[in-house]
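User: Hi! Is it possible to get a structure for several chains at once, not just one? Here's what I have:
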Amino acid sequence: MDRTKLLKNRRDFLKDLTMVSATLSAPTFLVRSLQGAEVSAAGRILVVIELAGGCDGLNTIVPYTNDFYYQERPSLAIDAGSVLPLDDQVGFHPSLTGFKELYDRGNMAVVQGVGYPNPNRSHFRSRDIWHTAEAEEIGADGWLAKYFDSFQGSGSLQGINIGGRVPKALISESGSSPSISTIDTYRLQTDPRYPGDENNKNAVFQNILSEPPTLFPPFQEYVTQTVLDATFSSAEILEGQDNYNSTIEYPVTAFGGNLKTIAQIIAADIGATVFYATLSGFDTHAGQVDPTDPDVGTHADLLETLSLAVKAFWDDVREMGRENDVLIMSFSEFGRRVSQNASDGTDHGTANQMFLFGETINPGLYGEQPSLDPQDLDPIGDLLHNVDFRSVYSTVLGNWLEVDPAPLIGETWPILPIL
Amino acid sequence: MRRGIFVVLLSFMVQGVLGGQGAPVQDPGSTKVLVELPLNLYLCPPCVSWDSKWTSHLMRRAGFSAPPEELDRLVEIGFEATLDELLNYQGIDDVEMEEGLAEEDYPLTRVDQQGQLRPNTIGMQRWWLYRMVNSRRQLLEKMTYFWHDHFATSVATVRQVRIDERPFVMVQNDLLREHALGNLKDMVEAMAKDPAMLIWLDNRSNVKEHPNENWGRELLELFTLGVGNYTDQDVVAAARAFTGWGLNRLTGEYIFYPSQHDYGFKDFLGEVGPWDGSDVIDIIFEQDVTAEFIARKLFEFFVYTDPSQQTIAELAEIFRANDYEILPLTRAILEHPEFFSERAYRALIKSPVELLVGIFRELEIIDPGTLPRLMTGMGQDLFAPPDVSGWTSGVGWINTPALLTRYNFFNLLASFRGDGSLDFVEWVQTHQLSSFDVVGLFLDAIVKNDVSVDTRYALEQYMLTNDSGEIVEWNINDSRMIDKKVRGVLYLILVLPTYQLN
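Assistant: Yes, the chains can be modeled jointly so their relative placement is included. Here is the combined structure:
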């Protein structure tokens, strides 16, 4: 692959379209991505992992010396002998061997008791709250998209979602980040019989896309912009894909594949600063554990998928020598009810943990494990939070991405000494 | 006619027998003239003429689009008759579709590695897509699709099969079709006792000692009231009221287990009593917000997003006045001046189902063939919505990998040269088509001419541009040029942003 030529083509393409867009409102992404190069100057990368469905925190970081825990979860509680202790109060679920290794190596921080006031137990509303970092009135813009927008001329390519549907965190009124499933399928094909006609097709394509989307606003613009995002990002990744030559074996799971895709794109060095991956299935109202053995079951499988994939990804990042550049942060829209239900499951709850992984991180436990004493729970029977999630966001924005978090998060939140 | 062109072109996906497949291509010239505004009906305000544009608009929304001949027919019979065909579907004979479907005999189950009978997801998807493509009861299928997204239940979780070998998710689909234009309260009651739903939202294990809130919560949040119109305490009360509701795992029949039911008093939406699930549904339908929630969702499905509060209040009033009958509400939406407004025109984004079923109907392909696999890449697996909130419609369909999958599918379609594909060269030569003719025919059939002058010009120029970028003469004897450019321009029209809009 002649990289110089590709690069030149891309610049020309960009230039053409920028000239057009100087007079039109449409392809703003192009303008942004041209000017946005300096944003990632620090070279720092944030990988956000969403545990969708409401991960049961109490069976993830297990309060294995707490009597209330065992009382309230007769068929669900993880045996104290099975946990992988973090200290004399809490320990990892036995499936989290990968996490344990990273924790022991000093690459992991656990923030306990994270939540927000007046917790919302709707998946969809609570997810929106986490995605917009607005707990009272939910805004239109995702918190990461606001981060991108805060740079003059920064662009959608700053963030990449892995998978299909782009999360709200990466969408603002000025645009959406692209989404990539696997890099092998992430490209536009044209009639294989006539490669010589490809340029002609591209020219028409360009022409159509640079047209002002006045025919059928607003969706015509949205579609147009997404097509532009797709063609650009695929060209960029195509250009850099040979940079990736890893020896790390990822677990054969969809989520493992997604984290590998992130590693491939990091290697391609296209300047993206935020990656987003989602592991779904945590809504364990029923059958969270095997009735005969609380150490195994749906939730245990999910945690294993998570922990092995993160471990492989981290090994990969180290092999690339990029460990000082990458921070991983995980969250879930809520934790689950202290008291289990009769279906070997748990209903929607409140406060939960967040995990951070990095080379330069100050490892250990942050926040406090909320009290499980029934007297200390809210009226529904849920945990009270003691760290606001916006404190964690602010810490990441301020001390990792090195921007002023207040304008993005809306107010000033305490910074945690993690980074 | 166009029928011949597209049927043959696309027959690589056709696995069944296709009537028109071998038919000789007729003079396409006659297709260039659309019916010229017979003005059968004025809808006022705002007066729009019942022409090909608005007929096509109605059929894209109230159905899954329609082939050109069908549009011509509907223009001729007029708006009232068209609406009548859509709404009073019982009067429409659909035997041909049912027979064709029976003949296809898609497998709805399969035996898994453990020897268990499980749903055959691909088979079920083809079964439904066949209905969508071929049913003459278009609105009924469209509404069934709407309710499938509304009461979103996934085969990924609900793997059980009824003793007569019908998967429970199919049982639910039958039920949704039965109630699709019926009564909403009846449908909610049916859903509360539907085996797939009892499994999906865990109500089968919702018992007095430890209520499971999953169904109770989503009933309020997603199915009837909408978020913000109830409290967490109401969720707990609703869950308690539905304790003891379960099913016979073999027959799927609803069973009430009195010993598991909480007979205590519950405070639900401010009303206190020893409510059971049916009482909760009664109370839900005493709330004004229920009619508004559903009217808004249906309006946004059919017309455009973010309607005025007044529009929704009026529709909700109609809905309540008709005792939650869905048909009069649907009629009111399809007759609404806003439905025939410029604001509504091409103002929705096609879901993968709408896109693909639409292409198949526009181009008259009968069998959905390999469509299910393509739909996964575009982000929509029928019978397997991502979660209980259904699919994120609108811009949710438009993300980069989904668009690449769409566009690569268009390329596949346009460049297919396997068995039964059309010989474009012969077509062009037989009818002596100029490059302008070809562009004009395709633009009319595919995007109803909803393109700018600039785009049309760019496409016309493309037809005449050689590999070196020079403009050359259209040479009807140059087979390579014809094959390349006709297929190329078909692709370029399918990828127009406009074609992604509904």
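Residues 424-500 of chain B form one domain. Residues 1-46 of chain B have pLDDT under 50 and may be disordered.

User: Great, thank you!
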